[in-house]
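Side project, low priority. Logging it here so it doesn't get lost.
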Amino acid sequence: MKKKIAMLLTLALAASSLAACGGKDTAATTAAPAAETTAAGGDGAAAETQAAASGEDAFASLGDFTMMVGHAQPEGNPRYVSMEKFAEDVAAKTNGHVTVEVFGNGQLGTEKEMLEQVVAGTVQGMRGGQFDFSPRLLMFTLPFLAQNRAQVTALLQSDLAKKVCAEAEAETGTVIINLCDAGGWRQFSNSKHPITKPDDLKGLKMRTNGMNTIDKTFIALGATTTTIPYSDLYMGLKTGVADGQENPWVNVEGMKFYEVQQYFTEVNYQFHPDPFYVNAAWWNGLPQEYKDIISECATEMGTYNDQLIDENQEAAKQAVIDAGCEVYEPSEEELKAFQDAVQVVYDQCVEEGIMTADELQEMLDIVANTK
């Protein structure tokens, strides 16, 4: 019933946004043609600065737009906080002519449902590690691909990442305007026993979100997998639908998974890219000035998001410990046993066409050349 209500609210909000803004693909009430409103080499930030200096509203003639964006994280999570900042920044830099309405905590549905809404155009954007429509992004989720923040940033800002993001518009009708970290290093947990070596996963039923590389990783380690939506995971763990799960510390704390899991292993086995998907038709209908500003704010949002993750990971881990859970920290030798056990996942991803052998080597080179 709640999902039905949420979807009805979603459609109602989308309809009201479009009706209020008087456009089918754009949400503008008085949008002038882009060719007339965009100077050669248009720069939204430059226009903003000039407007501030003159005391004039440089964007008044461009029309008003509403950007409805959804995500699955609860209040306090880095994605939630950084999205609120993004909305504030866009409003400030467009003099209020672009309004970003953020619906967090899964209000608009699951991540897959939200992405489907973005593709359909009923919602303008969503953030989240949802790769069903852009499976090539999975190449960045290979187990144990990176070991530190600098390497993660280098991968997500690489020419390879830009190429993969550019493929999304042709394949899905979405534009990815930013790619940051979805939550930090991902850890294992379960309710049965400590996981100190790969054999400890044998016989465990581990929850996944259906992501190809997570399933492959757990299967390579000897576990079985079951798919449970993020919003339903707490109850799935509580009722024993799954024995364990994998998530970053900030997600474990925010969703209180420590209440229904006893044993955690700080394995740092994976990070996830966090694409910011925007409906391509809506995006391409914006004046260039607004595209420049939104892109700039999205870049700043991504940097802020990753900073929040780095600042909050240890505190979130401590909250798990304080709740009475056991946290095991493998030695370097023990970690190597996990790494060796999942090397097969790399070969499988190449065989399935998620990446080419050359692209895999490109990623490995990026990591090796980044300290």
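Brief comment: The chain is about 45% helix and 15% strand.
Revisit when time allows.
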